[in-house]
Amino acid sequence: MEIAIAKVLELIEHLRMLDAENGDGRIEGADDDVESGAGHLFEDFDQDGTESQVRGVIDALNVDEQADLVALVWIGRGDFEAEEWPVARRRALERRHRSTATYLMGIPNAGDLLEEGLAAVAVDA
Q1: Helices (H) and strands (E) in the chain, counts
Q2: pTM score
Q3: What is the spatial distance between Cα 92 and Cα 90, in angstroms, rounded to a whole number?
Q4: Which pLDDT tens digit goes with each residue over 89-99?
Q5: Owning domain of residue 112
Q6: Shortest CA distance to 125 belongs to which of 78, 73, 74, 86?
């Protein structure tokens, strides 16, 4: 996996905030899951989880990191099994015909799916 787990965890938190703002999801706890000292993707932004902030962070990721996010969501949603990680990641790279941020933010409960995918891939590794 090319993306740092800390980045994924922080995106999960902010995608959940977005879902809560839109009435599509829930926020579970207020704990900061990112290790202290690791820095925050959102440190220059207000901590309100607005769509433009989340979009900016996802768009700033490199192609490989964005593919990892999409593959994690697909695994979390059950489209692929954890052991199919290379296939899911390759397909995610192939589908890059539009904005990854727009795609991910259009999926209800994307934060939860990311978390489930991350847990599955971590267990399988």
Answers
A1: 6, 0
A2: 0.77
A3: 5
A4: 999 999 887 89
A5: 5-124
A6: 86
